[in-house]
Specification:
0% strand, mainly alpha, 232 residues, rod-shaped, 6 helices
Length: 232
């Protein structure tokens, strides 16, 4: 699909068919050669003469520099410097900025004719620059997609390591808790037997003292008062 900047220069209407006495046609263009007045050339024909995919021969250090992109794409210098960028600058000048589109077009064509420049060369320059920008966009997009693929793979590997670590640590936590539970169960059983043993000792001692000094409860309980040994 033709881009909007083509419409400033190329029209489906033959400029030669315009009324030469029209006030919208500059006086110095009414006698312009037929090759200039018939500037309605096929964009598709012009585009087909240019390689669809530019090759970037040098690295681009600053992607924001369009001039660097154009240089890397080896866009040939336009005749006498009349690039599409210069045409764009002319169209935005104070002299042409507020004029009607057909007047802008006619004025540019007259200027090109005076400089001996074929409008086809300007269109070719525009297409080359456009394709260079589109091509470098694809280069950056591929680079971004490749980076995303690498980082996604790296993230997956990191996540797998995290999952493995978490699984191992959870297993250790569970093992520790089970070990504590077993120890508590063992200690609880031992304490029960200990209390039974103490009870036997206390019963035997009880025959010989008025106050039994043997503890039969929790070792952390408040100690009993001092005991008096019964004398015979």
């Amino acid at each position: 699909m033709p881009k909007k900047w083509y419409n400033y220069i190329v029209s489906v209407d033959d400029a030669a068919g315009a009324d030469p006495n029209s006030p919208h046609v500059p006086p110095n263009s009414r006698n312009a050669p037929a090759t200039i007045r018939s500037a309605a050339q096929s964009v598709a024909d012009i585009a087909s003469s240019i390689a669809p995919e530019p090759k970037f021969t040098t690295p681009i250090s600053d992607p924001t520099s369009f001039e660097e992109i154009y240089k890397a794409a080896e866009i040939p210098p336009p005749p006498q410097g009349y690039s599409i960028l210069k045409i764009s600058h002319m169209l935005e000048s104070e002299r042409l900025r507020n004029l009607a589109s057909d007047v802008k077009k006619s004025s540019i064509l007259v200027a090109l004719d005076a400089a001996g420049i074929d409008i086809k060369d300007v269109i070719q320059d525009a297409i080359r620059r456009d394709r260079a920008l589109d091509g470098y966009e694809r280069v950056q997009q591929r680079a971004a997609e490749e980076l995303e693929a690498r980082k996604n793979k790296e993230n997956s590997e990191i996540q797998a390591q995290i999952d493995k670590y978490v699984t191992e640590q959870r297993a250790k936590i569970q093992s520790n808790n089970e070990e504590v539970s077993r120890e508590k169960e063992r200690f609880s059983g031992w304490r029960l037997k200990k209390q039974q043993e103490e009870k036997k000792i206390a019963e035997a001692v009880g025959y010989f003292v008025t106050e039994n000094p043997i503890t039969t409860g929790d070792v952390n309980a408040t100690p009993p008062p001092s005991k008096t040994v019964q004398r015979s």
